[in-house]
Amino acid sequence: MKYTLPELTYNYEDLEPYMDAETVKLHHSVHHASYVNNANKLVSDIEEARNSGDFSKIRALSSSLSFNLSGHYLHSLFWRIMGPPSGNSEIDGEIKKQIEVNFGSVDNFFNIFNTLALTVEGSGWAVLTYDPINKDLHVSQIEKHNMLGISNHVPILALDVWEHAYYLKYKSDRKAFIEAFKNLINWEAVEKEYLNIV
Ligand code: MN
Description:
3-stranded antiparallel sheet; Helix Hairpins; binds manganese (II) ion
């Protein structure tokens, strides 16, 4: 089955003023789309290597698939858990309870999450993840799309801090972008991600 670029459930301009329409458009239709296209190409290249028995490029292909496919899944989550600021509700319900259990308070969670987002070296992400084995929440950095993550941890909230996510509007002020992201989180959507795996 081919990977496909998901449609957004809102318009490119709907995340204004926190995320500008041009950035969202380029981010979705160019950057995310390229990860989807690359992942599909790599899957077919790997299949070709399997059929031909020539495994000389298999390590490079596998590494590139890890990057591009992880990029596709993280971006898909990123779009799913955001929404127009006017329609977003406050954090509540099961996800709020579990955040309080694992981080002490919602404020503590944001302190850790935002600090990790701010200190990603180069391009990467901050993610809130659920560990289905240990049954608890964690926050982590991910470098690029696929480094430093913990293998069985499932991201349920993701913040992209690659420069392509904010540079047009925020220039080098990553901190202001991270603060603004709070206003775009659709907590009902995050809770849905959480309830899907608990
Ligand atoms: Mn991105």
